[in-house]
Amino acid sequence: MIGTINGKDVEFSENQTVLDVAKANGHFIPTLCELADLDHAPGTCRVCLVDIKRKGDSEHHIVTSCTTPMEDGMAVLTRTPKVRKMQRLQVELLLADHNQECASCVRHGNCELQDVAQFVGLQQNRYTYPEFYQRRSRDDSSPAIFRDMSKCIRCFRCVKVCREIQGIDALVITEKGLETEISVRDNLPLNQSDCVSCGQCILVCPVGALAGRNDTEEALDMFYDPEIFTVVQFAPAVRTAIGEEFGMAKGENVEGRMITALKQLGADVVLDTNFAADLVIMEEGSELLDRIKNKGVLPMFTSCCPGWVNFVEKNYPELNPHISTTRSPQQCLGSMAKTYLAEKMDINPGKIRVISIMPCTAKKGEAKRPEFEHEGLRDVDVVLSTRGFARILKREGLDLAGLGDTGFDNPWMSDYSGAAVIFGNTGGVMEAAVRTVHKVVTGKELEEVEYSGVRGEALRREATVDLGPDIGPVKVAVVHTLKEARRLVEEIKAGESPYGFVEVMACPGGCAGGGGQPRSKHSYQGTRLDRKQGMYTIDRKRSVRQSHNNPMIAKIYGDFLKEPLGEKSHHLLHTTYRDRKQKVSHTMDEIWREIEDRS
Fold this sequence. Notes:
The chain is α/β, with parallel strands linked by helices.
């Protein structure tokens, strides 16, 4: 079928909307609710207006392009004076119901509402009604996410992601009309709700209504305090993502530039979370073999993703014994920095502050878990998201694109294997574990170091690993998104799961698509695949590609930890889990009886 947009012929298929066809043919139409790769109810923002004239119709009509099917012979105009005027009015009405303290907003300069206001030519806002938005809720109870509904434009993207992608359904739409608000289910504070802090809602929020907790000032205080010894670590998925914030190529490895920037900020030591990922493989792999040989609890779940850990503790605490007791790489490195590194450098652990740069908002909450504080010292003191670190660099006048490379200079805790860096992709933890467990059991390295059986984009991937005559084949699975994880958990509870080892990542694509990563304009997960390929490229270029072959890992065990699953590693590298499931005070039968009694 053929129609026209702005006088140019366009071909399209049945069931495509005007907006779909316009985007496919390079005609920009502003919108605040639609995202290219997020299938959600359209038409909520009413900004994507266009002028249409149907075949055989003499009348022009102004319609929302995201809800109007393109028709054969239809003529569409996107920038007529009437369309622009109506778009400006719609944006004005959105702003009238919006907290306009833009200068202090975390989205200042990166706000879709500001961008659309500029695009439609808004020069002044004639309407503002604080009484509408000032009474809306603000919630800072979560250690990871801040809610400010005075800034919400009710596009409902966050509800869609929480409900349909993650299957958590912690966010709900309440009230109607001017009172409509995105609330937390059961009117609970965010930290007491089913929210797992994955941050996917933040990635899709077009404004500052949902944001990661801002720890910028605390981090800067540590950098500039001469009495504090600052240790900074950054995760594998950060190095191939943060360059986007500075106009660099998608997926480019900016590891060396990050070290340069951190040194200029005042970091005393820069470490790589990848080193701790290798450490985790040694502990987690040994734990898996111990469970298999001694008939321990199986399947064993990986423990690196705090969003996943939150999910189990809040929804299926009876499955806590299935989670590996090995801490995440972030927490392992924090623990080693305040013990092993402090000993090597002869520094009082009380003067060390560990700052983490993570692709994940849930890491903020993980660092504050009571299990990770000993004798008044936290293993990790501050967690910055990738976006948060980019904000610090911009504030301090450091353009990552213009900096040179600096290498790690710590002789004890900086080198890493290729297996460690692929932790940042879904399936990477499993692949890294297989590389090492196969060697430990069989005495031989995998013939093909890239274990393709667990790679890909399917929400669940399966493979069978042959661990030799003593153990035999072990079926493994990789799952990403919590909606798919819930399906798997229900199968396990029903006794229908054949797996021995399962990796779960809360976010689509794993850490590459984490809630703390840079946003992609006009799409939900737009550059995630570029970040993923960037990490696989780093793996292929490493001279050492298995965790057990990292010489620094051998050294830390020889000098300090002694052996995987040993007494010292158990104390410093392992943890426990809690039951955080909401206790229901009344059963549904009791509630219905009460309703009947009242009636």
